[in-house]
């Protein structure tokens, strides 16, 4: 079995679905967690020392027997395929990829909302919600709800859990923590049930109960 | 052999590397090209009719024997793996994925520049160049130059061309056409030579000579 080391900040963020994949597959890994940055501009001494040694100057990085893999989706796909959570056919794999890319198109508006919330200006938060975050979320949710409506398994692709499910379930939690996903709302029922289904998988449930929690 | 149909606008854009992959692999496909939109808000009747039938309300879409695959990177990865241009090991495949995700992180600033150029306000263009596009481009180019410096083959990953090379070579052309990549600049030499290497592959050369050209 290869030696895996996953390096990220002490946040869920871009690394959490990878940590969950290790747990799902019952594979040991070294879970290296750096102190989170206060902002992109404000590095910590620990991160400033590590940064030039990473392939792209970013985290997460997965190290496999000494070989570094950067970029969160590339890491997830690599582990998903190794461990059997990437789809069962080339077509299922393409749909897993497409779901995650669709989610990634939503990251810029989500980041704008997070920045506005940190800024604390109510007018700016309202503007971002109305003009960018809101429409982007509505578009993503419409796609996700349509897919879940047709799904026989209750998962996004095929008949079992994939890394796309982990990514989407985790982002629902992030949005809930940011106050922009209401789990009691009827229109969010499908997505709330979906997250519950993912988080009820015994390995995921145990992982989530034991992990250090964070807003993002 | 499956029947392939690739639907996109009559632009290079997000579909061009997929068209090049078909040519590289000598595989026939139906190259459906819709009239380009004037803006995201200004649909054409043709696109408005097709849009609700696409999986995510977006193009490109690849249809394989009646099965739709959305999202450009998912399409490229699917074809790249089918045709043998996705890397030769799981680790090479992960690096191809990581290169393209790193490029995708650059798309938001690139889009901001395109929007500013369309707006035609010189001050706004200068501001975007200085604050967002410029730093993002410098970061991406630093990564690409570092990788090309270490590459023995002259390609980004492994010893042959992959779909990541096609994506990066094409975006260099787009940046050149937008006036933000100077092929005569010494500091761009590695990237200029790299693009030339990709575009000199006989199938790519023939394809590029025959294609309808566009700025993006």
TrEMBL record, chains A, B:
Residue ranges of domain GST N-terminal in the record: 2-87
Catalytic activity: RX + glutathione = an S-substituted glutathione + a halide anion + H(+)
UniProt xrefs under Gene3D superfamilies: 1.20.1050.10, Glutaredoxin (3.40.30.10)
A Pfam family it matches: GST_C_3
Residue stretches making up the GST C-terminal domain: 89-216
One GO cellular component, as annotated: cytoplasm
GO molecular function: glutathione transferase activity
Keywords annotated in UniProt: Transferase
GO biological process entries: glutathione metabolic process
UniProt xrefs under PROSITE patterns: GST_CTER, GST_NTER
Protein name: glutathione transferase
Keyword Transferase: yes
Gene name of the record: gst-24
EC number: 2.5.1.18
Keyword Methyltransferase part of the UniProt annotation: no
Source organism of the structure: Caenorhabditis briggsae
UniProt record similarity statement: Belongs to the GST superfamily. Sigma family.
Any coiled-coil regions, as ranges: none
Organism domain of life: Eukaryota
